[in-house]
Amino acid sequence: MASSDQPRAQWLGRWGFMLAATGSAVGLGNIWKFPYMTGEYGGGAFVLVYLICILAVGVPVMMAEIAFGRRGRGSPIDAFRRMATESGRSPVWSLLGWMSMLAGFMILSFYVVVAGWSFSYLWKTLSGGLNAGSVEALAAVFDANNASPWNLGFWSTLVTLATMVIVGKGVQEGIEKNVRWMMPGLVLMLVLLIGFGAFSGGFGEALAFLFSFNAGSLSSAGMLAALGHAFFTLSLAAGAILTYGSYLPKSASIGRTTLAVALADTVVALMAGLAIFPVIFANGMDPASGPGLIFMSLPVAFQAMPLGTLFEVLFFVMLSMAALTSSISMVEATVSWLCDSKGFTRRSAAWSTGIVLWLVSTAAMLSFNLGADWTLAGRTFFDWLDYLTSRWMMPLGGLGTVILAGFLLDKHVMRDELDLSPTLYTLWLLMARYVSPLGILVIFADQLALFTVSFAQHWPWLLMILVAMIAVGEFLSPRLRTSLAPR
Ligand code: TRP
């Protein structure tokens, strides 16, 4: 059964973890989600709060998560249990591992749909379907692409298949080698787009939009979204970074690695903003046009530049690759758990996960066409997956992680694992104990307030969900108790 006495697979090269963690962090979150959220929440103020969240919450949580993975040597479930029991705490902490694995799976279910957009735009560029010209025409192309479940389903199925093939091959082979050429390529494409934007007439406006702090546009909803996105973009609390950390050799410095990954991730997000907003302003688009933003704006820029089609192809290749190196990391937790604890081979683990994933992601895909009206409290299934993970599960997982790391583990554990200078360690401890939890609790306070209001409107539904959850919980609890028992 559990193969914990065998040495665990490790990264191939010294840069393996860095590359893979950066590959996981840099993805659609940076290039698709960050710009459209910035547009929706009013620009500079959102960007500032986001940067603070990355530094004050994201970095400490990521350090703890990597340390848990490396010391816990296993899937999130095993790692949380081992870390807790090692310090004499309850094995029930492994529930955090369950939740993060579920979060990773749920994120992937909607992520493959967006990655499918990227793949389909690559195809459209190649086949000449994007030469539409105006922003309005491109918006129509985006809508038409979503309208057919067969079309959209084809692309998200393709992404699911690609993810599972790579994961089945193993992380080291599948990931390390790809990230090595993909990251520099992506940065190059963004530089090119920014260079183009600098001459397009909208650059000044874009700079002002992104970097001038306008306190008036700082809504509480925007702040909460910024924190949720900090978790999302760094791939935190969804099992990904933890599982990657479990392949990290003892000699690597967690602090330095974390800073490098967070920096790379942030730079790519800001570059994406600088590439996209000049086009938006120069063409009079609304920055708050939502999830379709990059797909409606960037083709305009490409069409206007020399060799545009070539660059557009390269851009969508890079974006699709960036999406794949992220999607791979989201299933890695589930796959490593199936292999370690359930005796699956890597391949069968990848394919069984893939089948379930395909079912859930197909339901998410339908939110854009057939199922657009299947809403609960105003959210489609796709929106629910995003909302539950970004606003609840990831923050809750992050909170549990820092509380365990900052207060409950034996004093020496995190000090040994992080191996920082005394000053830096104290700084980390302060962040992990007070700054991060406080920031996260603010989210929940606000969410709870919203929840109370919507509860008043939707209580019959919520009651039914609650009853169903209790029923499922009762059914699972004997198994849970046996699986949680210390071995
Ligand atoms: N960070 C990725 C992005 O920005 C998304 C992602 C990958 C992710 N793995 C994750 C998000 C794990 C949460 C958890 O595109």
Architecture overview:
The protein is mostly helical and 487 residues long. The chain has one domain (14-459): Amino acid/polyamine transporter I (Up-down Bundle). It is 78% helix and 0% strand. The chain has 18 helices and no strands. α9 packs across α12 (254-282), α13 (293-304) packs antiparallel against α14 (308-342) and α16 crosses α18 (422-484). The protein is globular and about 65 Å long. The N and C termini lie close together (12 Å). Mean pLDDT is 86; it is low at 1-5. Bound molecules: tryptophan (TRP). Tryptophan binds next to α1, α2, α5, α10 and α14.
Tell me the Rg in angstroms: 22 Å
Beta-strand percentage range? under 5%
Helix content: over 70%
Main sheet properties: none
Order of helices and strands: HHHHHHHHHHHHHHHHHH
Give the names of the bound compounds.
Answer: tryptophan
CATH topology label: Amino acid/polyamine transporter I
The CATH C-level name is: Mainly Alpha
Oligomer: single chain
Report a brief summary of the structure.
The protein has 487 residues and is mostly helical.
